[in-house]
Amino acid sequence: MEEILKHILLEMKDMRKDMNHIRTDITDIRGDITEIRTDITDIRGDIIDIRGDITDIRGDITEIRGDITDIRSDITEIRTDITRLEHGIEKLQRNLIDSLGSYTEKIVEYVDDKTEALNKRVYKFETEFERISRQ
Question: Got the DSSP string for 58-120?
């Protein structure tokens, strides 16, 4: 019986050692769980920050879309203005050519009139000179 008691005592010592190992493992597991909980809390905070950043980005995208719409509108207005200016330049060129033609004709008529008047004066002078020189 004594041997059985020794054997039971030995088994109990082994069980205590095993229990101590288990307690150590449980303590380690509890520490790991605490670290995991801290990590989860940090991750939740990061998720909240990311959601805020996504909201900001969505607002920025909306603003950019509005700016793009404004730019497209401005480009359309600029194209319209360019078309209008091109037509205006074409009209100005036609008017300028017409005006130059008209002014050229008037200058030619003026020169012709003055030349004719001068020729008449020269003719009168020559006629008078011839008449005087015959006398």
Answer: HHHHHHHHHHHHHHHHHHHHHHHHHHHHHHHHHHHHHHHHHHHHHHHHHHHHHHHHHHHHHHH
